[in-house]
């Protein structure tokens, strides 16, 4: 990693911490600088404005998210859909930190209609994530693990379901039916997408775990 790349990565980490701590509405470049080990001027050197920085941050989040989904565990299509739902709906790691960050993300999305550059990046992120979902589904259909579905329509539904569950968790707090929503996504959107085990190729059936009976 070059010096500039290392600096940008550190700025992204600082932005993550500041956003979780302050929320989007109260986020300033100074708040990000307070989380950054180097000078505030270095942030301004790489990013012309807060808006420019936030667009870069959203692009960074997308890259991290796709890396986690595609490289965070087994390559099985069903497991990748499960991993994506888990990351978005319940998060990974500390519950309080996850909710703080999800709260900040919701605040950012709420401002998108009023900030065209932010909205454009969110639209691009959504397009690319739906593309990843569609590719996973297409791979599962082609391998015989999933039954025939329209990958693009499924991707739109799955994306809306996991994002909606995340938003409900933020808005309703402890009253949100997050566990039930995640279980429903697992059971209906992932489980019911799969073909019956006896219809799958022998290589796929032999790799099934004992938990498939309750899927």
TrEMBL record:
Signal peptide start-end: none
* DNA-binding residues: 28-47
A Pfam family for this UniProt protein? TetR_N
| Domain HTH tetR-type, chain residue ranges per copy | 5-65
Q: Which UniProt keywords apply?
A: DNA-binding, Repressor, Transcription, Transcription regulation
Q: Which InterPro entries match?
A: BetI_C, Homeodomain-like_sf, HTH-type_TetR-like_transc_reg, HTH_TetR, Tet_transcr_reg_TetR-rel_C_sf
From the UniProt record, which GO molecular function terms apply? DNA-binding transcription factor activity; transcription cis-regulatory region binding
Question: What is the protein's name according to its record?
Answer: TetR/AcrR family transcriptional regulator
- Its source organism is Halosimplex litoreum
